[in-house]
Amino acid sequence: MKLVFLLPFLVLGGCAAFDDGLYDVSDALKGDLRGLGTKAQTTLAKICQDLQSNQVSGVKKWSRTMVSIPALVTQVSQSGSAYAVAFRDMKGGKHTGVAYTRSANMANEEKIAAVSAGDKIYVLGTLSPQGSSLNGKTCALRFDKARFKEMKR
């Protein structure tokens, strides 16, 4: 009965924190607990170093947790049914990442509209081995289930 009462607020609310919380609960019900724990603070350079040292253990380590990466946005676009944010490490570097939201719904549209090339943000997401590549000394990494948080100035 309570769910029926809350349903209109869930549909119309558009509150980012509430939306993210629903995703976390939905994932947990499916057995994916990565969004519920502490986010691993890291950089693209650190993930790439681990992948280049041993790709098997690097993928195991970084795809099993939600990561938080300080990033400089290079491009924002829509990719199929999701939004994509391309970024690189804050300190320059040669490594790049692309983070994909779950969907191009209204809540994500509001969040993505606030992000532009040149912005400094935190990218939260899960490393996706499919779509990531190692090219010698550089990495191009894909992150799914992405969220974005503005850095405090």
Summarize the structure in words.
The protein has helices at about 1-15, 15-30, 45-55, 55-65, 105-115; strands at about 40, 65-80, 80-90, 95-100, 120-135, 140-150. The chain is of the alpha/beta class. A hairpin with a 2-residue loop joins strand 2 (about 65-80) and strand 3. Helix 3 (about 45-55) crosses helix 4. The longest helix has 14 residues, at about 15-30.
Write the topology of this structure.
Blueprint (H helix, E strand, L loop, with lengths): L1 H12 L2 H14 L10 E2 L2 H10 L1 H9 L3 E13 L2 E8 L6 E5 L5 H8 L6 E16 L2 E13 L3
Parallel strand pairs: 1-2, 4-6
Antiparallel strand pairs: 2-3, 2-5, 3-4, 5-6
Order of helices and strands: HHEHHEEEHEE
Shape: globular
Unreliable runs, pLDDT <50, ≥5 residues?
Answer: 1-18
Tell me the Rg in angstroms: 16 Å
Distance between the termini: 44 Å
Looking at the chains present, what oligomeric state does this protein adopt? single chain
The total strand number stands at: 6
Q: What level of helicity do the residues show?
A: 25-40%
Structural class, by secondary structure, is alpha/beta
Number of helices: 5
Main sheet summary: 5 strands, mixed, barrel
Strand order of the largest sheet: 2-3-4-6-5
Average pLDDT figure: 79
In short:
With 153 residues, the chain is α/β, with parallel strands linked by helices. It has five helices and six strands; from the N terminus they run ααβααβββαββ.
